[in-house]
Every structure is written in structure tokens, then in C-alpha cells.
Amino acid sequence: MPNIKSAEKRVKIIEKKTAINKAAKSRISTYAKKFKLAVANNEVENAKNLYSEVVSLLDKAASENIIHKNNASRKKAHYAKMLESLNK
Questions:
Q1: What burial class does residue 38 get, using C-beta atoms within 10 Å of its C-beta: 0-12 exposed, 13-18 middle, 19+ buried?
Q2: Which of 57, 59, 63, 64 is nearest to 32 (CA)?
Q3: Number of domains comprising the chain
Q4: Which of the 8 DSSP states describes residue 66?
Q5: First and final CA of the chain: distance in angstroms?
Q6: Looking at the domain assignment, is residue 84 inside a domain?
Q7: pTM of the predicted model, to two decimals?
């Protein structure tokens, strides 16, 4: 445990930020799982809606530096490819 008051404050701030980041990542993975399940069940309309939601969450997380922008881009491309496979 830190002895300096400013260090104690930083620990509290980091704990809050960690909780926020963890919640955002959890939200992304939840919607990604729902999207993948919709793709697996060939639910085109549901998959399209979930795709837009996942992309939105990924963009927001990348802009807030929760995940790296290339990671978000890679995941978006992967999900777009999955969605495109439904249209064939």
C-alpha cells in the first residue's frame, strides 16, 4: 500500500478505470457472442443488428484506448466476413 497521499489517490483512480475498462470489454464480448450465435443459426436480420452494435462498441473502445485500434479493426473485419457469409 502506498504511503504518499497522491499515490493512494492514483490507486483509487486506477481501480475505477480498471472496472470501467473491464465492463466495456465484457460488453463487447457479450455482443460478439450473440452475433456469432446469430450467424451460426443463420438469423440474417438479427445478425445485421448485432453486427452494427458490436462495431459501434469496438469503435468506441478503440477511441477510448480500451483496446488497440488495430485490434478493433481486425475484429470488425472478421465479423464483417462472417456477416457476408450469411448473404451468400
A1: buried
A2: 57
A3: 1
A4: S
A5: 58
A6: yes
A7: 0.87
Please give the pLDDT value at position 23.
Answer: 97
Is 2 a residue whose pLDDT tops 90? no
Residue 69 domain boundaries: 44-88
In degrees and rounded to multiples of 5, residue 59 shows phi and psi of: -60, -45
Is residue 67 helix, strand or coil?
coil
Dihedral of alpha carbons 60, 61, 64, 65, sign: negative
Cβ neighbors of 55 (< 8 A, separation 6 or more) are: 76, 79
pLDDT digits (tens, 9 = 90+) for 23-81: 999 999 999 999 999 999 999 999 999 999 999 999 999 999 999 999 999 999 999 99
The whole-angstrom separation of Cα 27 and Cα 30 is 5
